[in-house]
Amino acid sequence: MADFAPLKQETHMFEPPASFVKNANISGMDNYRAMCAASERDYEGFWAQHARDHLFWHKPFTKVLNQNDAPFYRWFEDGQLNVSYNCLDRNLQNGNAAKTAIVFEADGGQTTRVSYKELHERVCQFANGLKSLGIRKGDRVVIYMPMSVEGIAAMQACARIGATHSVVFGGFSAKSLQERIIDAGAIAVITADEQVRGGKHLPLKSIVDEALALGGCEHIKHVVVYRRTGANIQLAEGRDKWLHDVLASQSTACEPEWVDAEHPLFILYTSGSTGKPKGVQHSSGGYLLWAALTMKWTFDIKPDDVFWCTADIGWITGHTYIAYGPLAVGATQIVFEGVPTYPNAGRFWDMIQKHKATIFYTAPTAIRSLIKAADADPDVHPKKYDLSSLRLLGSVGEPINPEAWMWYYKNVGNENCPVTDTFWQTESGGHMISPLPGATPMVPGSCTLPLPGIMTAVVDETGQDLPNGQGGILVVKRPWPSMIRTIWGDPERFRKSYFPDELGGKTYLAGDGAVRNEKTGYFTITGRIDDVLNVSGHRMGTMEIESALVANPIVAEAAVVGKPDETTGESICAFVVLKRARPTGDEAKQIAKELRDWVGKEIGPIAKPKEIRFGDNLPKTRSGKIMRRLLRVLAKGDDITQDVSTLENPAILAQLKQAQ
Ligand code: WT7
């Protein structure tokens, strides 16, 4: 477990602008406190009321929370609804039919607008197309798509017919894709011929072909291909079809499949402390409720807003705050195919100006790299653009350092926009701890206070509450509607990972360390307490990367640790022992390159170690356990000042200290 070094904490408070507070959906701290008090007074009543007010139920629920099989909680279990109906049909009934749902900007800059009416038609047609292939409620569909209207429509179409989707991020390799297809037991893959990002083409369809050729995917009956670029691809007879052919004769009306609130809307794989990714399973009712509520609370969404979340649909942020949340509240949103640095690092600012974005939600990594770019080239500095449409900024995915927060606040928000530092996880489904933009005074580097209804706390290893000021383990004391329901196919791992017996079996273990400020009670996240790294906001398990490395025939042993990185937050540093003599000089460089490419093939380019160091051995205890805490110190380039008396082979430290 990591040591909870007290962080240097910012103390200056930034009050939300008075004009913002005046019009906010939740205005002022008294309102926030009243909502928290209401949730504590009658927890189930609080959630039931919101679920009735914010969602359309085909069959109203009578039960709110079933705790009989804790920690397998069930919310609104006798209620029935359809997620796609809530996101689309409701908007046709309430006057939003002609409103723009999506402003899509392609990598090359072409813009397409899709109204709610058109999106509804496209999703219905897509849903009918999936049905024509025999895909039914409960079937699993893997989506391996670029950022596109079609990608969102694919997710919504699955939701419409009750199929459970599993989106795999385009940066994962054929092997990672294959593992997820097998684990989910999917019967179809929806993909594109190519993905285009930053002018570069990535052959998604041929990666799917490669994944399926690896074997074990015989349950895949269909591969549906969206034509993005027209690149030459192979279509396997009987199995593969163009999306436009599947849709050609389909009606643009499709009755939704009403499902139970607990019906699995999607599975999304994420990294944990073992080598195998976890299929995080989410529900329909509870998940959508929180997606919609947090749009209203954290993002203060209003009818005229132009909302822009820069995440990819391959991650949870792209699920909750692109594919579902904005549509569930009838918002207009920007969807972007490309990358922030193409054709230059002013792309985000240019798009905010062009589309008059009012709410902008991005990751600290992106902010930090754009700070660097703006320092180097004044032409891509946000001050060169008209960003006056903005009224709210958000941050997600990793801790935002106070310097980056200040830059974002000043240069992008013109000191006029609240910055919401939203802490949450794939497992939480939506925001957990975040300022309310029209209420909470902000402190750079702190995600501040839990949202109403979210019972977070900082405890010690035995589950005892810790006083403010003392670092400990972040937990959630009561179940909440959008929480993970299970790990697909592995309920025991779900229980052990998130509701460990040491904490009493009913307290949710987030996997992060946290400390609350002595005066304000504000939370600061101190980082993961398990073997999970956060590289550019991408969650990576050290064990996954180690397994990938040792799968290479020349590798005897490998240990992977995170190293603080100015831009990406953390970077991956691997210590490797080869089956042959320790390489040095050019040979070491050559082998390091081969191993990096190997990891790229095994997991995906996002998992390539930035640095690889070779040793004759790894630092181990006498019982053979690798001492990763020492490796973390070495990776940083620091001297070892800790106790090494349990170390079997102290001489190895000097060798591993040198970066190759
Ligand atoms: C982990 C979850 C949140 C959706 C995208 C990432 C870290 C996330 C923050 C934040 C400090 C943060 C945590 C968390 N994290 N947001 N605002 N401040 N840390 O989802 O891939 O499931 O990763 O990201 O360590 O546990 P994810």
Quick structural overview:
The protein is of the alpha/beta class. The chain is built from 19 helices and 30 strands. The strands form nine sheets. A seven-stranded mixed sheet has the order 5-4-17-16-18-19-20, sandwiched between helices. A five-stranded parallel sheet has the order 7-6-8-11-12, with helices on both faces. It has a four-stranded antiparallel sheet with strand order 21-22-24-25, with no helix packed on it.
* CATH C-level of the domain at 536-656: Alpha Beta
Count of runs of 4 or more consecutive helical residues: 19
Task: Name the CATH superfamily assignment of the domain at 536-656.
Answer: ANL, C-terminal domain
CATH architectural type of the domain at 536-656: 2-Layer Sandwich
Strand order of the largest sheet: 5-4-17-16-18-19-20
What keywords describe this structure?
660 residues, seven-stranded mixed beta sheet, disordered N terminus, alpha/beta, binds 5'-O-[(S)-butoxy(hydroxy)phosphoryl]adenosine, GMP Synthetase, Chain A, domain 3, 32% helix
Structure, explained:
With 660 residues, the protein is of the alpha/beta class. It has a domain at 536-656: ANL, C-terminal domain (GMP Synthetase, Chain A, domain 3). Helix content is 32%, strand content 21%. Strands 5-4-17-16-18-19-20 form a 7-stranded mixed sheet, with helices on both faces. A 5-stranded parallel sheet has the order 7-6-8-11-12, with helices on both faces. Strands 21-22-24-25 form a 4-stranded antiparallel sheet, with no helix packed on it. A hairpin with a 7-residue loop joins strand 1 and strand 2. The longest helix is centred in the C-terminal third of the chain and has 18 residues, at 585-602. The protein starts with 17 loop residues before the first helix and ends with a helix. The structure holds 5'-O-[(S)-butoxy(hydroxy)phosphoryl]adenosine (WT7). 5'-O-[(S)-butoxy(hydroxy)phosphoryl]adenosine binds at residues 270, 315-317, 396-399, 421-426, 447, 511-512, 525, 528, 534, 539. Residues 544-625 form the AMP-binding enzyme C-terminal domain. Pfam families: ACAS_N, AMP-binding, AMP-binding_C. The modification N6-acetyllysine is found at residue 625. Belongs to the ATP-dependent AMP-binding enzyme family.
